[in-house]
Amino acid sequence: MTAAPQAGAPTVVVTSGEPAGIGPDICLALAEREWPCRLLVAADPRVMAERNAELGARVELVSVGSDGADAHRAGRLQLLVHHAPLPVVAGRLEPGNAGYVLGMIRQAVAGCSNGRYAALVTGPVQKSTINESGVAFTGHTEFLATLTGAPRPVMLLVAGKLRVALATTHLPLRAVADSLNEDDLLATIRVLAAGLRERFGLVRPRILVLGLNPHAGESGHLGREDLDVIAPAIARAAAEDIAARGPLPADTAFAPRQLTDADAVLAMFHDQGLPVIKYAGFGHAVNVTLGLPILRTSVDHGTALDLAATGRADPGSMVAALELALACIRP
Length: 331
Hints:
- There is one protein chain.
- With 331 residues, the chain is of the alpha/beta class.
- The protein has two domains: 1-150 and 292-331, 3-Layer(aba) Sandwich (Isopropylmalate Dehydrogenase); 153-290, Isopropylmalate Dehydrogenase, CATH 3.40.718.10.
- Helix content is 37%, strand content 18%.
- It is built from twelve helices and twelve strands.
- The chain has helices at 23-29, 45-55, 98-113, 127-132, 140-148, 173-179, 182-200, 225-239, 250-253, 256-259, 270-281, 316-328; strands at residues 11-15, 38-43, 60-64, 76-81, 119-122, 154-159, 162-166, 206-210, 243-248, 264-267, 286-290, 296-299.
- Strands 3-4-2-1-5-12-11-6-7-10-8-9 form a twelve-stranded mixed sheet, with helices on both faces.
- The two termini are 23 Å apart.
């Protein structure tokens, strides 16, 4: 069991995400254990009370202000109050509640930015519903970057000792090759190296960079991006004393002998890196956004509408996200 909080423990804010999904369920599950922090869950008290009853969870729910959180204790959950404008039914999406979802994120980011909260943990949101509400939304990563003015957010997935970052995030596959260029890739490597130092305490992190094409381009016979873009970016990073190597073929890069000498792997696109880490730790992996001026972790899964209010939602990734956030908080 996690240790009880000490005096001066940090405040961590958790956004409960899409109310019709499993966000409320896995937030309620956080109340089952002790946490060494002041834990604050942004949510509609009515939604949480209804889900609490549907699950038979018997969690004590306490509504507090943005500065009112005290030490967390098992069996009790402190709520940072937001109100969904329309009724919430588990499993049924309602675009009219998208503003509620985004409002929680905005307030949480503001609190982290002004130092009120030490970290943000985000529950899953439904991108399609937010877009249907009339708000252009590609994902948490890009939204958080806009809110904080961060020029280059980098998505890092963590499952135990395996860490996988992405050079590109939510792009159609046909757009990936055209989006890669040497300067941007070098900038991503810099953010990744800095994030591994600052968040994970690695003095000189070792980064394994994947190629884009099969066999890392097969010396140019299967595409020039590995020779003309990725390799030069790695060389420039090495000249800056960043311990990056590659490009390595993606089909062999995750072999244990390669990962022995790597603190993180940089994949070129979403479905090059994420299937591996989700196979290794789905339901217990954590998404970390590097390059932000705030500390943010998140679950590695979606809203799972079919599991909402059923008691079958696995809170493992939410628990892991909070554990990692606490581990990454620096004095």
